[in-house]
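Quick one - first record:
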Amino acid sequence: MDHTPDISSVLINGEKETVWSAITNEDKLLQWYAPGSPWKIPNLKAGEKVTFTLMPSVHNNLTEEYPMTLTIEKIIPYQEFSLYLEAQQMLLSFTLDEEANGIRVTVNSEGFNQSLANLKALVEGKEIPYV
């Protein structure tokens, strides 16, 4: 495995369709990505606006809801889902690669290991470790 320091990745034992749904469906994102923080994805198309509302939790220093607007930059079904976060001027990209033992999900930034562990648990039908 490539241990490039500026990415986060996880190998998930599951089907690419299930993994894809977990990273692009607002109800599933609510369960693993900052659990309890809602997503609104009106249309799963490039150029569309998405809202993510980060809720206060033990993992952040927030005292109130923090809504963020993102723009879907790229969608290649079952391969890549990229969002541009205006506030931080950051592109967040999830890529899926089929491997012998499952689907590798890679995020183009470090610091997503807990979120990816949650995603793996959700897809594999296990308890979410970081809530």
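second record:
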Amino acid sequence: MYFIEIFQAFTGRLPEVDDLIANTAGFLVGYLTAQGFLELFDKKAYKYGIIRILSTVILFCISIFALSFWANGDALQAEEEAYVKMMGRYGMEHR
């Protein structure tokens, strides 16, 4: 996982922190979901397998939802700053 990001430096692309975070999150979701599916085949741990799969999927969805709000907040702030800069450049007042 990290090898791919480091290898990108030799191909003209630079590794980015958000790629590392997304790759690590994807690995964890896949691993926990696979463990849940493996527990489905064990009669003693069947309920725990279902709980593990559901909790992994639900927590992943909540995390993505929260991160999208965080990322959009940064984008809105950058858009507002660009708008104020443009208005100042043309001598207009910001409302």
